[in-house]
Write a structure and sequence with these properties.
The complex is a heterodimer of chains A (about 375) and B (about 110).
Chain A (H helix, E strand, L loop, with lengths): L3 E8 L9 H15 L10 E5 L7 H9 L5 E5 L5 H15 L4 E8 L20 H16 L3 H15 L13 H5 L19 E9 H7 L4 E10 L13 H14 L8 E3 L5 H10 L8 H10 L10 H5 L3 H16 L13 E8 L4 E8 L1
Parallel strand pairs in A: 2-3, 2-4, 7-8
Antiparallel strand pairs in A: 1-5, 1-6, 4-5, 6-9, 8-9
Helix pairs in contact in A: 1-2, 3-12, 5-9, 5-10
Chain B lengths: L1 H7 L4 E5 L4 E2 L15 E4 L4 E9 L2 E8 L3 E8 L9 E9 L3 E7 L2
Parallel strand pairs in B: 6-8
Antiparallel strand pairs in B: 1-2, 1-3, 4-5, 4-7, 5-6, 7-8
The chains are: A alpha/beta (about 375), B mainly beta (about 110).
Chain lengths: ~375, ~110
């Protein structure tokens, strides 16, 4: 299997802009070309788009708009982890030798149809994500004694981290008390416990080892991949554990011969505050029921190891772009190019991205 | 799907595979194990309250039936619900999506 590296990336400003999905994707591609030395359209063998938008034939359209005539061209949709699914597809094309260079671009609009999974009839009329997140939250509180304050630390930390992220949707600092006093959405979740859908795009460039040096002196290698889909129905979940992430992380750690203790920096899919706590526990960063303390310690020591760009809560959640923005961030961190939000000399990073009430997860391990 | 048409008539039915002798959930016309056709029957009550919360003063919950299938719906009760409490279906219907209202069993 060929080694695969990330050799370029770009992010656009996450916003509420009412712009066509093609324009959003093109902006990220244009920026990636501007930031990647020696990259020419003819170098690119595969173009993969990632979105839940209903527009058709997007990858060929973006290729056409960008002057690329790729061998491989298609869209990847898997709700909120579309971006990492597209990344894994691009990895596979290069690892197998079908392609040497792949461009992955993800985007979403603020009004994405991917925000609600209509198919899951077992959710009854309670299909909006706020309802499954409330079930997770209440169950975690009941089983482990997790408090509203524990949850608020996640939001306060990630919002604070987003202050140093110029592409964040609404970078603003909130105290733990302000999070706890924000608008009540359900009995168990406040407004600032929630990530917000927005418009935005991100792109990454993947290359084989033989091509990587053309574009960068510091490629970041994808050394571990784990993916698991346990169901399409939220009601099959254990409410205090995210099995899809637990299993995906096991595979990613096994493939990369790493462990949670070896991870220096990570992007976690904090669609809601409870998600960050459960994911940290189920991947082995914290003991079950102890992630609340783990996160409050990070907040109090200004530790940016988890979600340095602000996560989904701080940076915004344009579904199809999110996983790619996470990969982009960890690449930037491992290259030492994260500016004000740079963590201290990281060598190994991790991305965790999930979809549809945590029924499907992707975990990637990246190494400098 | 029969599940939806029965809900429209106020009946909560669940699919069961006659060959595998297992309930199929979420509801489907065919068994995901053997791909055979399911048969439809009423769900055994009471169910068990798995979890609940509330939005704008209206309770919503997850209920488990027959130690197997779980469904979300509204919860109507006069007293504070308790996790694991037995619940029954007060009413059900279908209006673009399934709608269930559960009540605590006395």
């Amino acid at each position: 299997m060929n080694r695969v590296g990330i050799v370029g990336y770009s992010d656009t400003k996450f916003s509420s802009d009412d712009i066509p999905i093609e324009s959003s994707m093109f902006s990220a591609v244009k920026e990636l070309f501007g930031q990647t030395p020696n990259l020419a359209q003819k170098d690119i063998d595969a173009v993969l788009t990632s979105t839940n938008d209903n527009k058709k034939y997007l990858s060929p359209i973006i290729s056409e708009m960008s002057g690329i005539a790729p061998k491989i061209s298609h869209n990847v949709e898997n709700l909120c982890n579309s971006g990492t699914n597209a990344t894994v597809s691009a990895f596979s094309y290069i690892a197998s030798g079908l392609a040497d260079v792949a461009l992955v671009v993800g985007a979403e609009r603020f009004d994405s149809p991917g925000q609600v999974l209509e198919w899951d009839g077992s959710r009854g009329e309670f299909k909006h994500p706020i309802f499954w997140a409330s079930m997770f939250t209440k169950a975690h509180k009941r089983k482990f004694g997790t408090t509203d304050e524990h949850l608020a630390y996640v939001s306060a930390k990630n919002h604070r981290n987003s202050l140093d992220n110029p592409t964040a949707y609404n970078p603003k600092k909130y105290t733990v008390e302000e999070v706890m006093n924000s608008k009540r959405i359900t009995d168990d979740l406040r407004l600032l416990d929630c990530s917000r859908p927005c418009t935005g795009s991100s792109a990454i460039l993947l290359a084989s080892e033989k091509m990587a040096k053309k574009f960068t002196d510091v490629p970041v290698w994808i050394s571990g991949i784990g993916q698991k889909t346990t169901s399409a129905s939220f009601t099959k979940n254990d409410l205090t554990s995210i099995e899809s992430t637990r299993l995906a992380a096991q595979d990613a750690f096994s493939m990369s011969k790493t462990s949670p203790q070896k991870i220096d920096v990570a992007e976690i899919h904090d669609a809601f505050t409870i998600c960050e706590l459960m994911v940290l526990e189920d991947m082995g960063f914290a003991q079950k029921g102890k992630a609340g303390q783990f996160v409050s310690d990070m907040y109090n020591t200004n530790d940016k190891k988890i979600n340095p760009r602000g996560g989904l809560i701080g940076a915004g959640h344009p579904l199809g772009a999110t996983g790619i923005a996470q990969v982009s961030e960890i690449t930037r961190q491992l290259q030492g190019k994260a500016g004000k939000r740079q963590t201290e000399n990281p060598k190994i990073g991790l991305v965790q991205n999930m979809s549809a009430a945590a029924t499907s997860s992707t975990v990637l391990v990246l190494e400098s | 799907m029969i599940f939806e048409s029965e809900l429209k008539n106020g009946r909560f039915v669940v699919p069961e595979c006659p060959k595998c002798q297992k309930l199929v959930w979420p509801p489907s016309e065919s068994c995901p194990r053997c791909f055979g056709n399911v048969v439809w029957r009423t769900a055994d009550e009471p169910g068990m309250l798995v979890e609940y919360s509330a939005k704008d003063g209206r309770l919503f919950c997850m209920v488990e039936f027959e130690n197997s299938i779980r469904v979300m719906g509204a919860l109507e009760c006069d007293t504070a619900p308790v996790d694991g409490q037995k619940v029954k279906v007060l009413k059900c219907g279908f209006d673009g999506s399934p709608k269930f209202t559960f009540g605590l069993e006395k």
